[in-house]
Amino acid sequence: MAESFDVPPGGGAFVLPRMAVGLFLTDQPGHRIAVGSDRRKPIPLAAGDGWILPAGTSGICEYDAALSYLKLELTDALLVDVGFDRAQDVGPVVGRIDPLLAELARQAVSTAGEPASLYRETMELALAAHLAHLLSSRTDGAAAVDDRRLQRAVAYIHDNIAEELSLDEIASEAAISRFHFVRAFRKAFGISPYQYVIHERMERAKILLKTTRLPVAEVAARVGYDDVSRFGRHFRRHVGTTPAAFRMD
Fold first, then answer.
1. Which residues are 10's β-sheet partners?
2. 219 in the Ramachandran plot: left (φ > 0), alpha (ψ -120 to 50) or beta?
3. Looking at CB atoms within 10 Å, which of 4, 31, 67, 179 has the fewest?
């Protein structure tokens, strides 16, 4: 279920029967939220920020200005369909939202009032698959000693996937020296940070190629490549075919 809302200042209590993704379309510097209690916490949100809240979440949300936002609810069955069966382990996320997840949410809401179609169903599956991938990435490596630090690093990668990322920046986000960060990351995820970034960029590129009509150059830019030829080489190495051929398949 995907909907858009325009509401006056205020807010109130909420209960979510299903996992929900929300996206603010207007800045809310006075936003306050309480999750699982009545103790409100100030969390300023800007347009493009939002939340991911698991099924059964209750709380209170308040805002001081008129609010426009999108909300999508995903059933456990849909998440299981895309290979994610750990919805009960997901904790609340409030703040920065993965840019590709936000874009898929906008597209899902834009098609919500249309009759069922292959495109609409593909969009819903793409959003669910990407959300599952994000949630899995945030919970994988839980046995690592510095897991919370590593998860901050992973969240930073996801939030800045279209930017020029450096090892210094990512390690700094984890508050670990470069040397120890690389060792801890490889131990937790089985690959180096560099390989992880490329993998995430290619996965996002695959979704954009299948669910949008963006030119390949624009897809490359949205996943962090100014050089289309370099993007094409990485894509072919990762997927086994060219971006254009993948889109047509």
1. 63
2. alpha
3. 179
